[in-house]
């Protein structure tokens, strides 16, 4: 919710992110539904993972697992959970060690270190159960360091619970409190929810909030990058099995415990490519003014692909007032040096750029005469 009072610290600014219309993209794609982005980079630490970091730390404190002045928090992460944990622990006074695969951005490492975390890089190609992986290295450190604890986003029930109790209800509140008008019709409910899957905590928790407490007929779609094995049925993963992918924060080579396989939690899976994801992220930036990262592009790709299926188009994409929510997990802060983003600096000159060049060239010539 909007913060209208003084907050005690930055933890109070976690969540409460806006739901924003993506009207220009919807129009470009010929959609009649309300295409809406849940924009998570507005959270204090810059991503959707702030929510689970805050809840995991606070619940560990409540259970007596974290001891002020002694505990060392260790977490294997692709970056955003680590940033959320480092932020929470900077405020609360815990030491933090983050194990981070090599492919993750330098910006993430710099942000982690700025928050006081120690960062250990691990080989990207290491299998999840290898001693050299970010998970294996974290486990090695946890065994050797007194009072060390791994909060473990992959198995911690507070990961999906954070989304069931905050992200999902925020989406519902935004939809329900926005009146339907002739110019902006609304079904008054969340009809479709789309998110990329990493640990799977986001899509699992939000799905439970939507289906159990709001709209049992809500359709939940998960995006999974090519090369990952999270999608179901498993045949969807066969063509690009083991293929490396560049997009960060989503996809895995194992099934995290917090990703529910209960029938009906995720209704459909869509595989996404790096190329399409980064093009969609640049579109969100340029068309909607939303400074998002690559995994937001993946979520948009999954949304558009599913909305153009027979079921997606007939029941939702072509229906005025249908509310389709896409979760946009983080912002461009983490990716400013990445090649896919820097491509924007090498775009072909626009007509306006040519005009500027001509004006300045003429101005320079007249001064020399």
From TrEMBL:
<comment type="pathway">
    <text>Amino-acid biosynthesis; L-cysteine biosynthesis; L-cysteine from L-homocysteine and L-serine: step 1/2.</text>
</comment>
<dbReference type="InterPro" id="IPR036052">
    <property type="entry name" value="TrpB-like_PALP_sf"/>
</dbReference>
<protein>
    <recommendedName>
        <fullName>cystathionine beta-synthase</fullName>
        <ecNumber>4.2.1.22</ecNumber>
    </recommendedName>
</protein>
<keyword id="KW-0663">Pyridoxal phosphate</keyword>
<dbReference type="Pfam" id="PF00291">
    <property type="entry name" value="PALP"/>
</dbReference>
<dbReference type="InterPro" id="IPR050214">
    <property type="entry name" value="Cys_Synth/Cystath_Beta-Synth"/>
</dbReference>
<dbReference type="GO" id="GO:0006535">
    <property type="term" value="P:cysteine biosynthetic process from serine"/>
</dbReference>
<dbReference type="GO" id="GO:0004122">
    <property type="term" value="F:cystathionine beta-synthase activity"/>
</dbReference>
<dbReference type="InterPro" id="IPR001926">
    <property type="entry name" value="TrpB-like_PALP"/>
</dbReference>
<comment type="similarity">
    <text>Belongs to the cysteine synthase/cystathionine beta-synthase family.</text>
</comment>
<dbReference type="InterPro" id="IPR001216">
    <property type="entry name" value="P-phosphate_BS"/>
</dbReference>
<feature type="domain" description="Tryptophan synthase beta chain-like PALP">
    <location>
        <begin position="12"/>
        <end position="329"/>
    </location>
</feature>
């Amino acid at each position: 919710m909007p913060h209208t009072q003084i907050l005690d610290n930055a933890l109070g600014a976690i969540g409460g992110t806006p739901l924003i219309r993506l009207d220009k993209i919807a129009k470009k794609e010929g959609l009649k539904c309300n295409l809406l982005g849940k924009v998570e980079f507005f959270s204090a630490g810059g991503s959707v993972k702030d929510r689970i970091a805050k809840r995991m730390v606070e619940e560990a404190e409540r259970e007596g697992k974290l001891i002020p002045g002694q505990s060392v928090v260790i977490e294997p992460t692709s970056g955003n959970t680590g940033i959320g944990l480092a932020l929470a622990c900077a405020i609360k006074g815990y030491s933090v060690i983050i194990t981070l695969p090599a492919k993750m951005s330098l910006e993430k490492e710099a942000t982690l270190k700025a928050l006081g975390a120690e960062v250990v890089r691990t080989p990207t190609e290491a299998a999840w159960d290898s001693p050299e992986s970010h998970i294996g290295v974290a486990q090695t450190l946890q065994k050797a360091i007194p009072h060390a604890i791994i909060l473990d986003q992959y198995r911690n029930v507070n990961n999906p619970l954070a989304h069931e109790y905050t992200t999902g209800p925020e989406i519902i509140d935004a939809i329900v409190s926005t009146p339907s008008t002739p110019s902006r019709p609304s079904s008054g409910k969340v009809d479709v929810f789309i998110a990329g899957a990493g640990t799977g905590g986001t899509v699992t928790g939000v799905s439970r909030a939507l289906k159990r407490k709001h709209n049992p007929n809500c359709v939940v779609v998960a995006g999974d990058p090519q090369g990952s094995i999270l999608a179901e049925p498993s045949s969807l993963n066969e063509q690009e099995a083991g293929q490396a992918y560049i997009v960060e924060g989503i996809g895995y080579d194992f099934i995290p415990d917090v990703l529910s396989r209960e029938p009906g939690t995720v209704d459909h899976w869509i595989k996404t490519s790096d190329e399409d994801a980064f093009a969609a992220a640049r579109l969100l930036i340029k068309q909607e003014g939303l400074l998002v990262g690559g995994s937001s592009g993946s979520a948009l790709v999954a949304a558009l692909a599913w909305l153009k299926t027979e079921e997606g188009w007939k029941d939702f994409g072509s229906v005025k007032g249908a509310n389709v929510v896409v979760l946009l997990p983080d912002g461009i802060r983490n990716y400013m040096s990445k090649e896919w983003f820097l491509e924007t600096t090498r775009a072909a000159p626009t007509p306006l750029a040519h005009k500027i060049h001509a004006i300045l060239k003429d101005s320079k010539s007249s001064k020399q005469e």
